[in-house]
């Protein structure tokens, strides 16, 4: 088995970036979900509330993030544009974090493109949002991702899922950080410890899914067949699962083409 694709999602719930490699730091893949769109009260906004977020594409140019709206209107920023900003308390699920508020022109661009008042915040290097220790053990931190630093999916599992449906969906809908090819469908459910390239990872929790995979990133339309099919074939204890959450045993770099070895 090997890594066939790697993704970074700089802004939570906006477009992802396909890359050939990335550094894994204590937040997860470098720059992954370090930025987040929030409302005026500091609560996170995702495609669950605003499907049009799927239409904003992202690109990384060195350490700069470039966003492009469906209209072609573009915005570029970096961590340095936020580090001198005001400290604000923001909420992502049950967690509250102190983040850095971005420049006014960034908020204005997002509010105009998304059609509602919103702001962009950055998780600065000193922020420590802890992972749920009941799954991962102590000491792990995460960015603005839903709960864990990395999400792994298997291409074979998506192929089987697509075979159950009248449509084919791309892996981008499931917003993984790494995609594994060459394995058997759903065998990732049994994995507990992996060596990927030169790095070691613990597989800590299956990823419970919401309605976001039903959103077509091409036009933001909703295709409920996706969730209906997941619910039929991938339900357990009232949750719907696709993919596995990982934590790394230290830092390192992953590459497309890295070999994947199941250790436990």
From TrEMBL:
<dbReference type="InterPro" id="IPR005302">
    <property type="entry name" value="MoCF_Sase_C"/>
</dbReference>
<dbReference type="InterPro" id="IPR011037">
    <property type="entry name" value="Pyrv_Knase-like_insert_dom_sf"/>
</dbReference>
<dbReference type="GO" id="GO:0030151">
    <property type="term" value="F:molybdenum ion binding"/>
</dbReference>
<dbReference type="GO" id="GO:0003824">
    <property type="term" value="F:catalytic activity"/>
</dbReference>
<dbReference type="GO" id="GO:0030170">
    <property type="term" value="F:pyridoxal phosphate binding"/>
</dbReference>
<dbReference type="Pfam" id="PF03476">
    <property type="entry name" value="MOSC_N"/>
</dbReference>
<dbReference type="InterPro" id="IPR005303">
    <property type="entry name" value="MOCOS_middle"/>
</dbReference>
<dbReference type="Pfam" id="PF03473">
    <property type="entry name" value="MOSC"/>
</dbReference>
<protein>
    <recommendedName>
        <fullName>MOSC domain-containing protein</fullName>
    </recommendedName>
</protein>
<feature type="domain" description="MOSC">
    <location>
        <begin position="98"/>
        <end position="263"/>
    </location>
</feature>
